[in-house]
Amino acid sequence: TTGSIQMPSFVSNEVAQAGRGGNTLKARVDAIASEGDDLVSMVRASAREYVSHMTNLNGELARAWNAAERVKALKMAIQCSKLLSDTQTPQFYPPMFVLVTEILDTFGRLVFDRIKEKGLTEQGKLKRKAEDFGPQDVTEEARETCRNWFYKVASIRELLPRVYMECAILRCHQFLSGFSEFPNTLDRLSHMLRGLGDPLVGSYARAYLARCGAAVNPTLKPYLRTLFLDQMVTLGQLEDRHWADRMASHSLDARQFTDLVEPSLSFVTHCLGFGADPPLCTTLLRDYATRYPPRGGDG
């Protein structure tokens, strides 16, 4: 891949230190949302440099968290999620998505474990698997910590990082309401993604929501059907003159651009088809074959 990609360079601890000095949740949120902070600067890098940097960044986030610099870790995760709005090098978007979501997955696991550390009940101390925990397994202090994390995420102004960050900590809803709220939460998030206008950005955001949703409950289908139908609409956008001109500016034709989107659609289709009844599977395969007809010579 040629060209350069935007990546974050974390150059100062001052904002994180200010966040740790605050005694209220509002102070921490203000520190996270403040404009003009010097925690992050954006630089351009080659694809090879980007991969190396993002791999190291995953470890840096974990180290910041373990050093109790949780505001810094949150800021890093938010800034990384914002990178997924950058489509200046569309050919690199799929691997960029993988690298960024690995960082978000790390952040989600750290938050989940942090809530457990705040206090387990005697019943909770007997459990080991993440999917087994519920409100009855943690103390009120732990549930309050959980609410605070969702409040921080809800305070993110931009749509794309707000959705990605809520997906990353999605499993933490178990500490507040068990599994009962997952259908409504996933449905809400699936509709929020309709606010993303870029086909590439929207397609991969839907794939991440599908992955996070499948991790907590693979049997839920309504939100996945919404994602699948919206993916079809997204692909229809590629026929517009605006997107044709944009693809041409990156030396891509419609088929090549569709190839970039295809992995995200395939994953949503896989999640929707998992455990589905035969009529639904037949409908999905027919729709998929219509959009992606077999190529000659592919066997």
TrEMBL record:
Keywords: Endosome, Protein transport, Transport
Membrane-traversing stretches: none
Places the protein is found: Endosome
InterPro entries: VPS35L (IPR029705)
One Gene Ontology CC term in the entry: endosome
GO biological processes: endocytic recycling; protein transport
Keyword ATP-binding: no
Family note: Belongs to the VPS35L family.
Protein's UniProt name: Uncharacterized protein
Organism encoding this protein: Hemiselmis andersenii
Lineage of source species: Eukaryota, Cryptophyceae, Cryptomonadales, Hemiselmidaceae, Hemiselmis
